[in-house]
Amino acid sequence: MAKKKKMESKMEPLEGQALLEKVRELGNLSKEEKARACGYYTVTKNDVERVNMMKFLNALIDAEGIELDSKANGNGRGGRSASYRISVQSNGNLLIGSAYTKQMGLQPGDEFEITLGRKHIHLKQLGAEEEIDE
């Protein structure tokens, strides 16, 4: 896995189109050899070379323009995505999660008037023109 490093200077890791072109150029080499040739390795203080596959693969994903993360919720953290379904909790409450309130642009303290229908709940934001059905 780790190899002794020969005396040569380390290059900056390739990114973007240059990375994609280099990987295509390297053809049938192994993933580790491609990563190393593209600059995705480090050398320890004992001169042992370690290939950083995770950085290499992430750089390839970025270079291809593949978006793996859902729309960011603004704070860089993951979390649940909105499923547009909720269940009554054991205490009888219905909880509307933050995924919905963020998507609607709601702020702490926003108030709603609740109207109950036969099989629906109608929310009308106080001080707003629009109505929100749930």
UniProtKB/TrEMBL annotation:
Record-annotated SpoVT-AbrB domain positions: 83-128
CC per GO annotation: protein-DNA complex
Domain of life: Bacteria
Keyword flag DNA-binding: yes
Transmembrane parts of this sequence: none
Record PROSITE patterns: SPOVT_ABRB
InterPro entries the record matches: AbrB-like, SpoVT-AbrB_dom
UniProt keyword Manganese, yes or no: no
GO molecular function terms listed in the Swiss-Prot or TrEMBL record: DNA-binding transcription repressor activity; transcription cis-regulatory region binding
Alphabetical UniProt keywords: DNA-binding
PANTHER family cross-referenced by the UniProt entry: SLL0359 PROTEIN
Name the record gives this protein: SpoVT-AbrB domain-containing protein
Species whose genome carries this gene: Coleofasciculus chthonoplastes PCC 7420
